[in-house]
């Protein structure tokens, strides 16, 4: 029996790889700047105005690489990949549908959010679950792929809503 690959999980992994590469590139650039400015500082006395200008210049150039934003992006893509992977693992390894649906809900949503949005969450998780089972076991067609993608997009919309509600609270 061949294992069918799904584009959604492959895309989440590709996004994570790209984010990692961007962070790595920016970190190397920042380290190069650090080395360059350390070399330049050897020729300047420590408390001089020129040293202050060099330090400020270095820090400005390092901040321009946006490492904080890139770290946030990498964290978000890692989290997305982990959630997609966990949901896929549950669907493929837990034969009992009710248990599978419950496990996916538990990893994605807080109880208080589930109470307020139960019907909508259940609808999208059930759609994702059925679509992915169909894709994995019966037919890896473009239609099955689209059903999984659509349901997952709605799940991600709901998790974003959950995050916004948590920030507002």
Molecular structure report:
This protein is an all-alpha fold. The chain folds into 2 domains: 1-82; 94-169, no CATH class. It has 6 helices and no strands. The protein has helices at 7-41, 49-63, 67-93, 97-108, 111-137, 142-168. Helix 1 packs antiparallel against helix 3 (67-93) and helix 5 runs antiparallel to helix 6 (142-168). The longest helix is centred in the first third of the chain and has 35 residues, at 7-41. It is elongated, with a radius of gyration of 23 Å. The relative contact order is 0.11. The model has no long low-confidence stretch (mean pLDDT 90).
SSE layout and pairings?
Layout: H1 7-41, H2 49-63, H3 67-93, H4 97-108, H5 111-137, H6 142-168
Helix pairs in contact: 1-2, 1-3, 3-4, 4-5, 5-6
Q: Let me know the average pLDDT.
A: 90
- Summed up, the helix count is 6
The termini sit apart by 49 Å
Oligomer: single chain
- Compressed to H and E, one letter per element, the order equals HHHHHH
Q: Rg, please?
A: 23 Å
Q: Which features characterize this protein?
A:
169 residues, mainly alpha, 2 domains, elongated
Summarize the structure.
The protein is mostly helical and about 170 residues long. About 85% of the residues lie in helices and about 0% in strands.
